[in-house]
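[agent] plan:
  1. take the single chain provided in the ticket
  2. run structure prediction with default settings
  3. attach structure tokens to the ticket
  4. add a short note for the reviewer (M.T.)
[agent] executing step 1
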Amino acid sequence: MTKQSEDKGFLEDPEIQITADEERLLDELGIFGESRRKFLGQASAAGLAAVAFQVLAEQKALAFGEVEALQPTGLLENPLKVGFKVNGAARAVEIDSRMTLLDTLRERLGLTGSKKGCDHGQCGACTVIVDGERV
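[agent] step 2 finished; step 3 output follows
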């Protein structure tokens, strides 16, 4: 066993020998000493990057210019042009005539505040306020 591995407290059994290649590999893997600081720094950087990506994604989702990108360009079976005000802003979309208000808000306008629950309207998760009335 080398002096360096003894200093690091790697192996307490004097009968176990490690080669210089094994010791170099352990050093590269960062098992000892300042590698903990390096690991914490890398973990912190990864966490900050994840938060930054989340913030950027939220800002892009809230951009009003992106609404048109959410609308599919494919052919609709029963197309219908609909215009209405949503949160004070006038909107016009082309939807399938069988599409529900909830699906239009979520899929065409990207407004995901209303949730789809039981998919039958019984649980109340999909309630939307229209002119002060629950719909």
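[agent] step 4 note for reviewer: The longest strand covers residues 79-86.
[agent] ticket updated
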